[in-house]
């Protein structure tokens, strides 16, 4: 199976070896939420049922947590979201 996952999920999946701890430290410097919160956010974004929003867009949104329309447009620059769709996404992300 091949699917995109957020940095928070990677941190939860790598294990507890010495190399894994190094990976976790690296990811922690970039990741803003826990793996559990990332999964919750993913479910909420998927529940919006926006056809234009693909799995890899959702993962990028989780990793960067855009707080406004301009930040969201930078994260999902390859998809043209309308104002209503942007507002829905930003509203969900602001909870986290």
Write down the secondary-structure element order: HHHHHH
Total strand segments = 0
The helix tally amounts to 6
Helical content class: 55-70%
Assembly type of the chains comes to single chain
Main β-sheet description: none
Overall, the morphology is elongated
Mean pLDDT over all positions: 92
Strand content: under 5%
Head-to-tail CA distance between termini: 28 Å
Structural class: mainly alpha
Tell me the Rg in angstroms: 14 Å
* Poorly predicted parts: none
Which features characterize this protein?
mainly alpha; 96 residues; single chain
Describe this structure in words.
This protein is mainly α and 96 residues long. Helices cover 62% and strands 0% of the residues. The chain contains 6 helices and no strands. The chain has helices spanning 7-13, 18-28, 35-47, 55-64, 69-75, 83-94. The longest helix has 13 residues, at 35-47.
């Amino acid at each position: 199976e091949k699917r995109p996952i957020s940095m928070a999920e990677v941190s939860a999946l790598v294990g507890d070896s010495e190399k894994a701890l190094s990976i976790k430290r690296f990811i922690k410097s970039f990741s803003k939420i826990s793996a559990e919160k990332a999964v919750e956010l993913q479910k909420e974004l998927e529940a919006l049922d926006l056809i234009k929003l693909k799995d890899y867009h959702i993962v990028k949104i989780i990793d960067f947590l855009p707080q406004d329309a301009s930040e969201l447009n930078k994260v999902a620059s390859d998809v043209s979201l309308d104002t209503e769709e942007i507002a829905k996404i930003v509203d969900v992300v602001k909870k986290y």
